[in-house]
Amino acid sequence: MTRQVVKANLFRSSWIIVSGLWGMFAICFPTVIENIFGLFQKEVGHNRLRWWSRNVVRSFNMDLKVYGEEHVNFENGQRYVIMSNHTSLMDIPVVLHALGSTIRFMSKDSILKIPIIGSAMRASGFVSIDRKSGFQAKKDLAYAKKKLEEGIQLWVSPEGTRSADGELLPFKRGVFKMAMEVDALIIPVGLIGCNKVVLPDTMEPYLNERVEVHIGDPIDTSLYSKDTIVDLMQVTREKIMALKAS
Predict the structure, then answer these.
(1) H/E element, 184
(2) pLDDT computed for residue 2 by the predictor
(3) Residue 100 DSSP class
(4) Would you say 205 and 8 are in contact if contact means Cβ atoms under 8 Å apart?
(5) Contact 118/111 with Cβ under 8 angstroms?
């Protein structure tokens, strides 16, 4: 039975915003406190993100479907970088909910500097890479590699920003260079419908939207070099385009 998509009324919209803010506080504040006193546990952080992503999906009553799960088998010691199209604020909680709470996303350094939120993100294993400083970039890459070796999977947007019309923007070379530098497998993912849950450039929420996550075969970055990075980018682009058109 097809569920009817409806625009959330004022009461429901307000509830979504309030519950979203409360959810952020509920996972960030205890994480910061535990980290200060050396009590933070990695599995607890995973559980909190699992709870947060599940609540976001439920608050919008999304009809979430995941396809291609057989392509994902996160093995210990192997590094994984998940790349998908990026059209909405909903992409991150949807990817977390669909692929697992051990996923972290590459954040802007400015976000990691936000009090409480940034501190909690750092404690939970979120990373950023400052390409403006060669010295800092090496430190950031070493940290990212360490986290990936510890069982964290990294989600990045190869477009670098959200697409307003749903079409894939040009890919940024930096995220592919990073994936190669940490010897990662790239997991291509196509997201469908996230941009209909919250319309681009608005805060208008819609309920009961069907959202699909299509997971593709991993791409081995060790088969490419700095001379063939453009080929890697093209292969990844073609796979994501095919997946989001499924």
Answers:
(1) strand 184-192
(2) 63
(3) -
(4) yes
(5) yes
Longest Cα–Cα distance in the chain: 56
CB atoms within 10 A of CB 64: 18
> For 236-245, what is the mean pLDDT?
97
Per-residue confidence (pLDDT) for residue 131, from 0 to 100: 62
pLDDT in tens, 113-123: 888 888 888 88
DSSP 198: B
The pLDDT, as a whole number, for residue 90 is: 95
Extract the tokens encoding 58.
């439920």
Q: Is the dihedral of CA 131, 136, 140, 146 positive or negative?
A: positive
Burial of 150: CB neighbours in 10 Å, binned 0-12, 13-18, 19+: exposed
CA distance 221 to 83: 13
Residue 135: exposed, middle, or buried by beta-carbon count in 10 A (0-12, 13-18, 19+)?
A: exposed
Total-model pTM:
0.92
Counting residues of the chain whose pLDDT is more than 70, the rounded percentage is 98
CB 66, CB 215: distance < 8 Å: yes
pLDDT of residue 5: 94
Cβ within 8 Å of residue 223, ≥6 positions away: none
Burial code (b: 16+ CB inside 10 Å, e: under 16) for 93-108 equals bbbbbbbbbbbbbbbe
Residue 238 CB coordination number (10 Å): 11
Cα dist from 130 to 9, 133, 161, 175, 176, whole Å:
41, 6, 16, 12, 15
What pLDDT is stored for residue 127 in this prediction? 86
